[in-house]
Amino acid sequence: MNEYKELKKILENAQSLVVFTGAGISVGSGIPDFRSAEGLYNQETNSSYSPEEMVSHSFYENHTEEFFEFYKNKMCYPNAQPNLAHKYIANLEKKGVNVTVITQNIDGLHSKAGSSRVYELHGNVHVNYCENCSRMFGLEYVLNSKGVPTCDKCGSIVKPDVVLYEENLNEDIISRSISAIMNCDVLLIIGTSLSVYPAAGFIRYFRGKYLIIINKGSTSYSNTADLCFDEDIVEVVKKIL
Length: 241
Ligand code: ZN
Prior knowledge:
The protein is an alpha/beta fold.
């Protein structure tokens, strides 16, 4: 059996499947990843600050206007649609596989594709709230506001529910994610080099049967994985469909 058939068989027969995804899964939806040559961190900006500085909590506090200019232009992709990979994962769930998605992405595309249990470690651009009265707003509200988005009720700043550098991840989401990884028999890692906190630490909790990695470029776990595909996930999905 070739490795693509084996992959399909393992995924479709999983008792409990955890899919852990990073930026690589959304490249096929037109969202650049952070660290590749064309990625967010290597893009030209009009600012003297680096993109990494601009997505930090202190930058948000001290340069709020500039933060939102960068955020709206470079971090939000309101027209992005789920690609074959997001849809394939959602379809596994429809076929009866018990699927938990844990993602580092903030694009909301797993939910949009139809996955029902999605833990978004870094939040989601579609959720925004007033810092003062907690009123909730959608992405369009933020994108359509001029400059810094403010609450239509109390006038305070509307903050995206996205985890910035220097901010803590949500404890509840972390513990649910770890618990899912500890209790799954198949762990599928897609589109992340596993070099960034907390991804690498999470994988250590896995004690199931199959660890599978699909990532263009090698990862710190490529040698220990049961199956490893050094290619774009959309290409892999095309081969197993
Ligand atoms: Zn408010």
